Amino acid sequence: MKGNQSWLSTLNPACKLLAHFLAMFILMAITDPKETLGIWLIAVFIGIFFGGWRMSYLLKRFLPYLGFFILVFWMMAAFGKGEETIWNWAWFHVTEESLTNGLTISLRMLGFVTFGLLFTSTTDLTLFIMSLIHQCKLSPKWAYGLLAGFRFIPLFQSELNQMKAAHKIRGYKQKSSWKAFMRYSLPLFTQGVRKSERIAIAMEARGFTGTRDRTYYQTTKLGVKDLIYLIGLLFMVFGVCLVSRILWGE
Hints:
The protein is mainly α. The chain is 71% helix and 4% strand. The protein has 2 domains: 148 residues, no CATH class; 54 residues, no CATH class. It has a two-stranded antiparallel sheet. Helix 1 packs antiparallel against helix 4.
């Protein structure tokens, strides 16, 4: 995770995560596709105007999921149950109820992905860990361990690319995927153990004991704009549900 220069990146990560979790929880309780579509559009609106998203970024991120969403929608619509038949051919039976369920579930999944992307694309990893310590009262021992684990991911990716390039230069070709997995995973595992031991020794040498009574280079606090975002997001979500039921009488 890496923050950008948008307004959303200036918010407290813990409060922002809570707001998105509440919005996704409401999504799970909604069974109307119109309301689900409205909540997803709210997330897209926030990403464009407050999260620094561009259309090229949206297309790049959502195109890989588009085929999966279409597949889920078709499976729910074509093989669902219902009384009001819309289309029937062979073993496909599309009903009004199954079509509604398919749209709701696919849009719900799309909303989950959008809210998750809205958080990860506008949140700095270090500030997120600090907010877990200061606002969520997470133990520094677990928090810094989690931060170190996240930092290992790009290192593992870089080392994996180096090993693949070295094997390619030497002309090595592995036909079995299981043997290739063992060939790459064992060196990565041993290097990860060595690096974790070095990090543990370095932290202990600098006086890290994992207690809460310590000083911090970076601190996070809750502000008025954080509460405005939390309340505003919930207000928009409930507003979409209310307007949808007033207009369509559901």
